[in-house]
Design a protein that fits this description.
By secondary structure, this protein is α/β, with parallel strands linked by helices. The protein contains 15 helices and 14 strands. A hairpin with a 3-residue loop joins strand 4 and strand 5. Helix 2 packs across helix 3. The chain starts with a strand and ends with a helix. It is an enzyme of class 6 (ligase). It comes from candidate division WWE3 bacterium. Its EC number is 6.5.1.2.
Length: 346
Amino acid sequence: ITPVAELEPIQIGGVEVARASLHNLSEIERKNIKIGDRVLVERAGDVIPQIVIPIKEVRTGTEKVFVMPKNCPVCNAETVTSPDKKQTICPNKSCPAQLKANLFHFVSRGGMDIEGMGRRTSELFVEKGLVKTLADVFKLAEKKSQEKLLSLEGFGQKSVENLMKEIEKSKSVELERFLYALGIPLVGERIATVLAKSFGNLETLSKAKQEDLEGIFEIGPEIAQQVVAFFSSEENLTMLEEMWNAGVAVKEKEKKALVEGTQTSEKQKLEGQKLEGKKFVFTGELQNYTRDEARRLVEKHGGRVTSTVSKSTDYVVIGENPGSKLERAEELGTKTLTEVDFSKLF
């Protein structure tokens, strides 16, 4: 559950902003933000609105301390907040709001990449009872489900056929994409890639103990705990079994030791880790790559892609119509690359 600030509409960089993420209770308390505050707002990376600080000098005394809801606003289940206050969740796995969000994440471009299943379609499938678990995505090809799909507004024979083709195509998936798609808490695209490289296949990862996971560079106790908890859940194991029965095949990946303190050898660099430790930022529109393709190419060769330019950024890749990230790169003296320069790195 993510708290969001409702703001009086303001213009920032030509864009009207009326909402800003407050991230979590820990962040709200750290910044001492209260309901009714006047606040300083910025768009992080010229995209995401965020509250920088409250203007304490103009407080009137009527401001109120924010309290996370004790019950889920959708299903009314009692919420659970982590000890560090960085995460508040609804533990009810049958909560419609959770299923909608999890389904949209599962089919997204970074996950199973099923074109034709955007946010609204995902929500509709949950609302109509077509999808009750993530595994149900692969049961949509059944005659009964297809008949129900055809009865929905906006779904004709051709669109249903196209969706079936996309679902069938998604069944062969890379391990890191599948791990990311599952929506394991704290496992984003980067950590999913680390886990895939470290364990090679889903079966080995599913049997890993917490100490095994914590021995991997970039995997801390909290992430390890979430991974172990996910694969210890009978509900999750049943869901995975249903996916295998539906024909989902997760590709194995070559294992690489990523234990804490491991140094990349010259041989590893020659075999593809030429960008080891390098940080990239992209700005503007690329002609020969989608952003997703460019990011995966960088990660394949050991680099990382971040969203903002900082002193630790090694390269800013410039496409057509670059934004303020180019100005920031020039301010910091960060090396810039054209798309042609970027291609030459590989």
